[in-house]
Specification:
heterotrimer; A mainly alpha (502); B mainly alpha (111); C mainly alpha (310); A: 502 residues; mainly alpha; two-stranded antiparallel sheet; 2 strands; globular; C: 310 residues; 2 domains; 12 helices; 70% helix
Chain lengths: 502, 111, 310
């Protein structure tokens, strides 16, 4: 019962480049100590975007997954990389968000001209590139241990970004984040050890063929998913996220909220739909959805109660992540032939993508607003509209996705989830989606209301923001809006490479 | 009679339980980090049991899980180093010492 | 063979682990942890995994133990003890841990027969590469990408530790590693041991291709010698802005990457080696990695910069 061998496809070497290119940039910045760390980053960022687009084009043209077998050693002994429709979608998303963040971060993380090297630019740019390598490995890796290494890369790149400014609260937030992430990793690794003991392989395709419905497999998958839940900040394991994402510099928060927490969720998707013996456990699916509902309701209310803009956005991240976990019972109950042809699955994935774009835009906008006003207290945001109108507009457009109002990717995603929930008679899920939308509208409009108010008499602008930074943020928000024009049905592209795994 | 691999498997389960307990309940970060290392060691032993049971083809143990453990040990060490550096910096920052070079973007004073 | 020694070992291990978690004083806890590390090395030998035993002794027990001991000394009495958790929470956590342990115990008591294994597959290709140590082959050939990425993890960890340097001190040297009271024996050891240690380290790396040993073990022994020299105050830790230091850190990963990309031309793709040259390439990569690991481990223990650059 050995799985068919992976055959390397023609453009497969590009997958290696996608993983290694950021590493080369990172090592170059570190070793050369060049006058300007950001210069190297600006070479790597567009390069990585091109690589991601090239792989996506390859997948779209051939209609099949792109595969590479590292060193020519076939799994399970060796490790394969594989880009299917879902992974290239997320790779392009990552590249777009990182390039935008790179542009906006130019204002905050340029090396001062009088220094050969400064701490925060060097750390920021090396870690952003490290993050990129980690994310691409998560999306491409086909081996559970390889994915463990990718998750560790992610943790080690993300945690220091949280405490980049060295304030005590951020140090505390970073330490808490690190401890949660480490618990998550160790539980994941424990599951991997049990699976290896039971099947002698950690290759995804191999496990899919072999997976039995027994105690070892259930415990292993349970441990792994629990660990990944801690990393993806699902209620009640979300406590680390708000201080960490709010404490990081805005450019880093954007990456953390938009991309980093999505990586563990992506691995949960892989485990659930590609490894777990089918049909999956209905009770576990319901439990994940219930925790998702709790995330949506509890953290939306928390977001509404925050005095700080960035903390509010961070709580909103946990709430929006909750929607992702609704897809498990919805995809199971659907009568579509495969999960990825179901409306619920597609809605979940679309939510992932549109939230990433919207939240990156929102955090960056919040960063620019805070730079311009010198603070981020929601109470005193008045006047923001007169200083950084484009950023406030971007905040509003991104808000559409969070609220689920048309036209926006978030609207289509939530509508799909809602449709799936009513079709499969999951009324609680439907109610939570509607309730979450109302709460999101309250917290977004609360901010917009203050930001659009006329400035008070003693209003002073702290810094002027270059136009290109504001336009980049607006661009991301517009991407999230444009996603609202996709048809309301499962996309064939996302299913490429998922039917009949090798 | 229990086999030696099962015995070490039980040892791993024990280490996991002890480590997890310490990690969740110890109030101080240093003790949490130590407990994390115990938890990690227990996890590695599970790989070791799989390796020992997989002895075949003239090899005394399956080399693949052994290699994974070696990678895991180094990663755990790196994690410990980062955690220790963080908690030391936190302890040194004492009350509300701000980094002299870092601006405070969330300034609390009304502007 | 009698299981009596194994029973005793497991019993001591669990007792040391309980001590590590239960000890009131954090220094006792660290010492308990070092004892656990030593016993674990023995356990790994009993599991026929000598390479892991060496790594555990060097990195898991040794380097981690040193790191934790330093942390204890630096924390002093000021570490604020948080409130101890309430009894209901303790019971709840205890029950949760017991359930996890019971599930794990059930799984190990009723394993799959016959045990699945990749040992035959791993052994089958070893002669192609001309190497004798299967673990080295897995680390540097079959699953080289994991090893490469894990080196990147180490570099990122170093950046993460350095990121904690206060801005004004950026580029400077980490604090002195000197032990509290300067001691004659330590200085003596630091003068005598390094040459011996370097020989052992090089031997482990060289030997790793065919017999137990390899990069990490060798690299850690090298790192330990360097740390010893720094602790005896014979050498100060270097400034973190030094180009030479930075280049040593990336040297191993860069050599690994170059060897990986060379595979596109001289073999069948990334990280594949031509059969005739596999062994020299792998030994070269291992040597380069060991050097970088020694520097990274040493600097990770030394911590962020604590003095302004000169």
């Amino acid at each position: 019962m050995t799985p068919a061998a992976y055959t390397a496809t023609e453009g497969g070497a590009l997958l290696v480049v996608a993983i290694v290119l950021p590493v080369i940039g990172m090592l170059a910045i570190f070793a050369l100590g060049l006058r300007r760390a950001e210069r190297i980053a600006y070479l790597v960022l567009p390069g990585g975007l091109l690589v991601a687009l090239a792989i996506a084009a390859d997948v779209a043209r051939s209609g099949a997954a792109v595969t590479y077998v590292l060193g020519g050693w076939q799994p399970p002994l060796g490790i394969a990389l594989r880009a299917d429709g879902l992974s290239v979608t997320l790779m392009v998303l990552t590249a777009v968000v990182l390039c935008a963040v790179g542009l906006v971060a130019r204002g905050s993380f340029s090396t001062p001209t009088d220094k050969a090297e400064a701490r925060s630019p060097m750390v920021f740019w090396t870690l952003i590139l490290g993050l990129w390598c980690a994310l691409n490995t998560v999306f491409l890796g086909q081996d559970l241990f390889n994915l463990f290494v990718a998750l560790e890369l992610l943790t080690f790149s993300a945690v220091p970004l949280v405490c980049l400014d060295g304030r005590r609260e951020t140090l505390q937030a970073a330490l808490r984040y690190l401890l949660f992430a480490l618990i998550g990793s160790v539980l994941y690794l424990m599951g991997a050890a049990l699976l290896y003991g039971a099947y002698g392989t950690l290759d995804l395709a191999g496990l899919r063929l072999l997976a039995r419905n027994d105690l070892a497999t259930s415990v292993a998958l349970g441990l792994m998913i629990a660990g990944l839940m801690a990393k993806a900040a699902l209620f009640p394991l979300h406590l680390w996220l708000p201080p960490a994402h709010a404490g990081a510099p805005a450019a880093a928060s954007a990456v953390l909220s938009a991309l980093v927490v999505k990586a563990p969720f992506f691995i949960i998707l892989r485990l659930w739909f590609d490894v777990a013996p089918q049909p999956a456990n209905a009770m576990a699916a319901q439990m994940l959805a219930w925790l998702g509902i709790a995330s949506i309701l509890f953290c939306s209310v928390m977001a509404l109660r925050q005095a700080r803009l960035k903390l509010m956005i961070a709580y909103s991240t946990v709430a929006q992540l909750g929607y992702l976990f609704l897809m498990f019972p919805l995809a199971m109950a659907s009568d579509a032939p495969t999960a990825w042809e179901s409306v619920g699955w597609t809605g979940g994935v679309l939510q992932l993508v549109s939230h990433a774009l919207a939240k990156a835009s929102m955090f960056l906008a919040a960063g620019l607003i805070a730079e311009a006003l010198g603070h981020d207290r929601i109470e005193n945001l008045d006047g923001a509209m007169s200083v950084v109108p484009i950023s406030v507009a971007a905040f509003g457009l991104a808000g559409l996705s969070l609220m689920g109002l048309p036209p926006s990717g978030g609207f289509v995603a939530k509508l799909m989830l809602l449709t799936a929930a009513t079709e499969t008679a999951n009324w609680w899920i439907a109610a939570a989606i509607l309730m979450g939308g109302i709460l999101a509208a309250s917290y977004v409009f609360r901010v917009l209301n203050r930001a659009m108010a006329a400035p008070s008499s003693n209003f002073a602008c702290k810094a002027s923001i270059p136009l290109y930074r504001e336009l980049t943020v607006l661009g991301l928000a517009i991407c999230a809006v444009v996603l609202g024009f996709v048809p309301l049905q499962p996309f064939a592209f996302l299913g490429i490479g998922r039917v009949g795994l090798p | 009679m229990i086999s030696s691999t099962a015995l070490y498997g039980l040892c791993a389960a024990g280490l996991v339980a002890i480590g997890l307990y310490g990690l969740v309940l110890h109030p101080t970060p240093l003790r949490k980090v130590i407990a994390f290392n115990l938890l990690g060691s227990g996890t590695f032993i599970f790989f070791g049991v799989a390796a020992r049971r997989g002895a075949a083809a003239g090899l005394l143990a399956d080399p693949v899980p052994q290699a994974m453990v070696i990678t895991g040990i180094v990663v755990a060490f790196a994690a410990t180093a980062v955690a220790v550096a963080l908690l030391l910096r936190l302890a040194e920052s004492g009350g509300s010492t701000l980094d002299p070079g870092a601006p405070d973007p969330q300034d609390d004073r009304p502007s | 063979m009698s299981l009596l020694p194994d029973f005793a070992l497991v019993l001591f291990l669990l007792m040391a682990a309980v001590w590590t978690v239960a000890a009131r004083d954090r220094r006792d806890s660290v010492i308990g942890f070092i004892v656990v590390g030593l016993l674990l090395s023995l356990a790994w030998i009993r599991l026929n995994s000598v390479d892991v035993a060496l790594t555990e002794a060097a990195v898991g027990g040794g380097a981690t133990g040193l790191l934790l001991l330093r942390a204890c000394a630096r924390l002093g009495p000021i570490e604020t003890e948080g409130a101890h958790p309430q009894l209901p929470l303790r019971i709840l956590t205890g029950v949760l841990c017991a359930v996890v342990a019971a599930a794990l115990a059930t799984i190990v008591l009723f394993p799959i027969e016959p045990a699945p294994t990749l040992a035959p597959a791993a052994a089958a290709h070893m002669s192609e590469l001309g190497l004798g140590n299967p673990v080295t082959v897995v680390l540097l050939a079959y699953r080289a990408i994991d090893t490469l990425l894990e080196k990147v993890v180490l570099v990122l960890a170093l950046i993460g530790v350095w990121a904690l340097t206060p801005d004004l001190l950026w580029g400077g040297a980490p604090g002195s590693l000197r032990a509290q009271q300067s001691s004659g024996p330590l200085t003596f050891l630091a003068q005598v041991l390094p040459p011996v240690g370097i020989v052992i380290g090089v031997y482990l790396i060289w030997n790793g291709a065919d017999r137990p040993g390899g990069t990490f073990q060798g690299g850690t022994v090298l790192a330990a010698m360097w740390l010893l020299v720094m602790m005896a105050d014979l050498r100060e830790p270097p400034e973190i802005r030094l180009h030479k230091l930075r280049q040593l850190v990336v040297f191993g990963p860069v050599v690994f990457l170059v060897a990986g990309f060379a595979g596109f031309w001289i073999a069948n793709g990334f990280l594949s080696y031509p059969p005739d040259f596999a062994k020299p390439i792998i030994v070269l990569v291992e040597a380069a990695l060991a050097l970088s690991i020694a520097v990274i481990l040493g600097m990770l223990v030394a911590g962020p910069a604590a003095r302004a650059p000169r």
